Amino acid sequence: MVPNVSGDLAKYFSPETAQALVTFIEQTVDKRFEQLKKTEIDHKFEVHSLEHKTEYQELKSEITRVEQELKTELAKTKAEIERAFRDILKWIIVLIVGNFVGLVGVLYTIVK
Question: Which portions of this protein are annotated as coiled-coil regions (predicted)?
């Protein structure tokens, strides 16, 4: 019997052939094991990539949401500023008209 070869394999094959078969099987198993490890690493990378992609999508949607909120707040602030500016202009016009009416009244009183 050849080392690493036992049982039926040693009965049906010559020691050299049996050892060659065992070596071939070991090499095949080792190659397959390496392929499986690589596949597992690739799978972990894919899962990791998917996690990052999901995280990226979540961050992107959060950024979009915050951007929309900021645009809404900006529009509200702009409307408030325009409204305040119109109110200030109204008061300025009222003061100018009031002063003009007062001046006309004073001039009328002086001329009369």
Answer: 49-87
1, 19, 20, 21: which is closest to 11 by C-alpha?
Answer: 1
Q: Which residues contact 22 (CB under 8 A, 6 or more apart)?
A: 2, 4, 5, 9
Main-chain dihedrals φ then ψ at residue 21, nearest 5 degrees: -65, -45
Q: Give the Cα separation of 5 and 11 in Å (integer).
A: 10
State both tokens at 27. 């090499």
Report if pTM > 0.85: no
List the domain range (segments joined by +) for residue 58. Answer: 8-111
Tally of domains within the chain:
1
Select from 95, 105, 35 the least CA-distant residue to 43: 35
Q: CA torsion, points 9, 13, 17, 22, in degrees to nearest 10?
A: 0
| Residue 67 within any structural domain of the chain | yes
Residue 56 is assigned to a structural domain of this protein: yes
User: Residue 42: inside a domain, yes or no?
Assistant: yes
